[in-house]
């Protein structure tokens, strides 16, 4: 499979991920505000709010990358989006699970998600610098 086909297919998957993540962001935010806020403590609600904040922000970034990749193929952006999506699942997901289950094992997953976020941002930076420097398509 060529890099162009792989990245184009991944752009579609990133759009799908953004749509699903955005849906769950709104649904879980509403559920947290209207249902969980009456049954969870302040710490648990803070974990959920932090998870939602990071999920919402990174969902928008992944959406922007997916749209950008429709116009400019870049393996750097491909891997950036993949790591940001993985970071969203691990970071925000572990905070939600921690708040709802109180299982302390989730505190070990959260930093892994954070590292995925950082790596995703670095790859996006490298991709942006390469585009500016070369102004060419990476196929």
UniProtKB/TrEMBL annotation:
Pfam families noted in UniProt: DUF423 (PF04241)
Key words of the record: Membrane, Transmembrane, Transmembrane helix
Transmembrane segments: 12-32, 52-69, 76-99, 105-129
Membrane topology: Multi-pass membrane protein
Coiled-coil residue windows: none
Stored InterPro entries: DUF423
Entry protein name: Uncharacterized small membrane protein
Record organism: Yersinia pestis
């Amino acid at each position: 499979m060529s890099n162009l086909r792989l990245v184009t297919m991944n752009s579609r998957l990133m759009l799908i991920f953004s749509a699903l993540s955005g849906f769950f962001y709104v649904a879980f935010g509403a559920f947290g505000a209207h249902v969980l806020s009456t049954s969870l403590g302040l710490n648990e609600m803070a974990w959920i709010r932090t998870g939602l904040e990071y999920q919402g922000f990174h969902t928008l970034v992944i959406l922007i990358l997916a749209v950008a990749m429709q116009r400019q193929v870049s393996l750097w952006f491909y891997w950036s989006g993949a790591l940001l999506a993985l970071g969203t699942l691990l970071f925000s997901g572990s905070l939600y699970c921690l708040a709802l289950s109180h299982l302390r094992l989730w505190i070990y997953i959260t930093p892994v998600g954070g590292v995925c976020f950082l790596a995703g941002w670095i790859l996006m930076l490298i991709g942006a610098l390469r585009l500016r420097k070369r102004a060419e398509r990476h196929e």
